[in-house]
Structures are given as structure tokens and as C-alpha cells.
Amino acid sequence: MASKKVYVFLAEGFEVTEALATVDVLRRAHLDVTTVSISHSLEVMSSNRILVKADRLFSESSLSDGDAIVLPGGMPGTLNLEHFEPLIDLILEYHRTGKLIGAICAAPSILGHLNLLNDEEAIAYPGFENDLYGATVSDNSVVRSHQFITARGMGVSHKFALKIVETLLDEETATQVAATAIIE
User: Fold this and answer.
1) pLDDT digits 0-9 by tens, 90-131
2) What domains lie within the chain, and their CATH numbers?
3) What distance in Å separates the CA atoms of residue 169 and residue 139, rounded to the nearest whole number?
4) Model pTM?
5) Strand 100-104 and strand 68-71: pairing?
6) Residue 111 three-state SS
7) At 114, is the secondary structure helix, strand, or coil?
8) Contact 158, 25 (CB under 8 A)
9) HSE-CB of 97 using CA atoms within 13 angstroms
């Protein structure tokens, strides 16, 4: 069986822990994870001024073949993701086809602004709850609602990633990864 594909999008000003802790956990679960820069350079500067080299450029090829996409938060990373039309088109395509969409911190606001969270349960970084249009705002730090996984912020990056593993693979694999990485 082919490994499930996950694309993690990086925009200037992304939250490094939300992106890279997620990538780390997903790769420990043997998922096929590709980081994708939405800019014209593989090198992307995080909100904390950490330079990260993405695996590929958004413009390099179609990204429709994935099983999931992940949107890290951070500022202005979230705004940069939201203003990149080709990514918005891809999000809408994943939504139409029922594929998994993960968003953490401020990034769930993108899904809210696209009116994708109607009748869903969701969470975002404190202060962004009003941007989750149509959603029931959860008290939980990580929420799965149908094809969406949303999370409150950087401090729950590992739990967010484990929920993606559980959804794409199974609970046993998520438990094994958590145990080997000592994630509580």
C-alpha cells in the first residue's frame, strides 16, 4: 500500500513549531510529507526569523494527489497563505473531494473566511474564534470534525499532528508515535 501523502504549506511568517513539529510527527508515522513554499524561493523565513528550506515550490507541480493538507499558523504567515489564490483553490478542491484539511493557530480562520466550517466544530488561537464563521467553537485544544482538524496553537502542535496520524492511519500508530517520541 502506498503511503498517504500530506502537503504542509509554508508562507513567509509561518509559526515554525506548528509546521516542523507536525512534519516531524507525521514522518515518524511514515507518512509521505512534503513541505511546500508558496513563494518563489524554497527558503522561507518563519515568524521567529528561522530560515527553513521547503521540499518544493507550489508552482512546481500539481498538489491535488495528496490525502491531506496542513496549514500552519503564525503571523503574517496565515495572512500570506490566505492571500495566495492558488492555495485557496487547492483548499476548495480538497474540501470538494472530502480530503483531510488541518489548520492550527490562526490558520483555521482561513477555513472560516471560506465558509467551509458551517456546522463543524473547530478551534483557533484565542482571538480568532470570531473568524470561524458558521462553526461551533470548541473548548478542546485539538478538534476533528468530519474532514477538518483544527488546533489552538503552537503548544498543541504534537497533539494536532497525532490527530492527523490517527485520522489518516489509525489510533494504534498514533499511540506508538506518541510513545516513541514521549508525547504526553
Assistant:
1) 999 999 999 999 999 999 999 999 999 999 999 999 999 999
2) 5-180 (3.40.50.880)
3) 25
4) 0.96
5) parallel
6) helix
7) coil
8) yes
9) 15
